[in-house]
Design brief:
about 210 residues, transmembrane, alpha+beta
Amino acid sequence: MTANTLYRLTHLSLAITLILTLITAIIALALPFFDEHLLSQWQIELANSAGPNEAELTANEWWIVKNQGMLTMQTSGVGLAISRAVTILLVGGLISYALYGLRGFFAGLRSERPFQASTPALLKKVGYSFIALAIVLYLEVPARFYLFIPDAADIADYYGTHIKVSPPAAEAFFIIPTLHWGLIVAGIFLLAIARAFALGLSLQTENDEII
């Protein structure tokens, strides 16, 4: 693909991401006003897999389906809708920020001088946004649990890498957030590329001064 094609694709992806982010956030906020129940789910690991496949907890507000390894909560509250909308805006915003940086990077490649003053900064934007996205996705899992599961602080212990949940009427289980290493590695790689472009820019400037 040429730089022009990549620039157009990135520009289109940025526009689509912004539109979808706003529409999805608005829908998430609107659902409670139509008496729609919202489901929130967490992947879990059971301390003991014996027993029935489904365990109901806390008066049908949340339950475990063991054979799926899933903790599910159902609510019609506005709080979860707001939380979901904020998460959508954060994730969509970070993706849009990364695409914006890539668009600027490809715009620079369309010229005859790829080592431009703005190139390292643009690549850093993309790299940092990838790392920030991985952190947001990781922290969202325990944050949502403690905000919306009834009596979460009393029945769960947070250890940084996982949450141990010990309900009074059920066996213990663990919630282990997924750390998206691919995003972190991509971010670090882009930061390294940004450094390489900064060195290339310095060499190009010295060459121009000599000429």
